[in-house]
Design goal:
There is one protein chain. Helix content is about 60%, strand content about 5%. By secondary structure, the protein is mainly alpha-helical. It has a domain of about 50 residues. Strands 1-2-3 form a 3-stranded antiparallel beta sheet.
């Protein structure tokens, strides 16, 4: 396979990567099949009128080479997208971990607050019951004392 992309002083060469859509002169291009022995039936892009104008150099590009360039460009873009996705995943995971720590801490504090409130309520209830039991014991003690003094 040979490669040939040419230009002239009249039509300055513009870099064409991948599949071209226009000749350097600005005209649309079309596809042709090579009839040379070296590249028989090999397809190429060229400005249609340029085939008849051998003294002017217009865009010429083999289709298979253009497609390989496109594949390489897609590979590069794919790699950049894959790297971007990886970086995005890493940032998301960092944020998720950070948010998880924050939520766990918040839940722990709320649970601790509820447990402390419940302990305080139960303690208050126990103190109240202890007061009632103490009063009941004093009353029973007085009744026993009075009954003992009356029976003696």
């Amino acid at each position: 396979m040979t490669s040939s992309s040419t230009s002239s002083a009249r039509f300055p060469r513009i870099s064409t990567h991948g599949v071209p859509t226009r000749c350097w002169c600005g005209e649309d291009i079309t596809t042709f099949g090579s009839s040379t022995a070296e590249n028989r039936y090999r397809r190429f892009y060229q400005y249609e009128i340029a085939r008849d104008r051998k003294n002017e150099n217009h865009l010429f590009k083999w289709i298979d080479e253009a497609l390989i360039e496109v594949i390489r460009m897609v590979d590069v873009k794919h790699e950049r997208v894959a790297q971007g996705i990886t970086m995005f995943e890493e940032r998301v995971m960092e944020k998720v971990k950070s948010e998880l720590v924050r939520v766990e801490h918040e839940m722990f504090e709320k649970l601790k607050e509820k447990v402390d409130l419940e302990f305080a309520r139960v303690l208050q209830e126990m103190k109240q019951k202890l007061k009632i039991a103490t009063v009941a014991m004093v009353v029973v003690g007085e009744i026993v004392g009075i009954w003992t003094s009356l029976s003696a």
